[in-house]
Write a structure and sequence with these properties.
- 36% of the residues lie in helices and 23% in strands.
- With 259 residues, the protein is α/β, with parallel strands linked by helices.
- The protein has a domain of 62 residues.
- It has a six-stranded mixed β-sheet, sandwiched between helices. Strands 2-1-4-5 form a four-stranded antiparallel β-sheet.
- Strand 1 and strand 2 form a beta hairpin.
- Helix 9 crosses helix 10.
Length: 259
């Protein structure tokens, strides 16, 4: 068996006496696309920050590409491209200047920069200042900076949030294109999006993994709005807990999942 590209062993992160991530053990193989779903406060973003070595676990261990996030923070960060929510970009820089700076830090050449700009649809905005961009275009810039470089692991926190439908379809196609080549861990409030994109889905609540597995095993037949709660009750054997999770997820009865 090959070593996993990401491995957590009893990873716990405590803030003010509360475990935001609680005793999580997980193995992710190279090339997998993993989806994290769950209500706000379930631990999705904290788990992503553990993976990018933003902070160390309070207990347990987190390893990325063979490097422990506690002892080899710089090595981990070189191997991770991270697109967080609500990131503060450099408002006074143009899109071109910002992405050129990121490319130089990540040792990405002009050809890769051009490819990323094209994939993210940023060509017409390259000379525009970041503080004048719409929310959707700022999200594209965040995705572009994560995509630059040769990071084997991409962490995408709500990658389609704020995007118009056409741009969201492009981002989904981009994520699919990495399957088998780069490992992608993404968070989403759309269960259908997770089903369409991911090899495995992890359902989180209160810092713990409630269920995980292949989409077709967790949600056979692809769930719709009328059946989601029943599926979660089946998974969790608890209607109250299922209701807590179901109210946090946007499930579309139809979704354009083709580029």
């Amino acid at each position: 068996m090959n070593d996993p590209i990401v491995e957590l062993e009893s990873a716990t992160k405590v803030f003010g006496g509360v475990a935001a991530v609680n005793d999580v053990s997980l193995r992710i193989d190279a090339g997998e696309v993993i989806g994290l779903v769950g209500p706000n406060g379930s631990g999705k973003t904290t788990l992503m920050r553990l993976l990018c070595a933003y902070f160390p676990p309070t207990r347990g261990s987190v390893r990325v590409a063979g490097h422990d996030t506690r002892d080899a923070r710089a090595e981990v960060r070189r191997r991770v491209g991270y697109a967080p929510q609500g990131v503060s970009l450099y408002p006074d820089l143009s899109v071109y200047d910002f992405l050129s700076f990121v490319a130089s830090v990540k040792h990405a050449g002009p050809a890769q920069l051009g490819y990323v700009v094209e994939r993210c649809g940023l060509g017409p905005r390259m000379q525009q200042r970041i503080d004048t961009l719409s929310k959707g275009y700022r999200q594209r810039v965040v995705l572009a900076q994560a995509m630059l470089g040769d990071s084997p692991v991409l962490l995408l926190d709500e990658p389609t949030m704020g995007l118009d439908p056409e741009a969201a379809i492009e981002v989904r196609a981009w994520i699919r294109s990495f399957r088998g080549n780069r490992t992608v861990v993404l968070t989403t409030h759309s269960l259908n999006e997770a089903i369409v994109l991911c090899d495995r889905i992890l359902v989180l609540d209160r810092g713990s993994i409630l269920a995980q597995g292949r989409p077709r095993d967790l949600f056979p037949g692809r769930v719709g709005v009328s059946t989601l709660e029943d599926e979660l009750v089946r998974l969790f054997q608890s209607r109250s807990r299922a209701e807590r999770v179901v109210t946090s997820l946007t499930v579309q009865s139809r979704m354009e999942d083709r580029p």
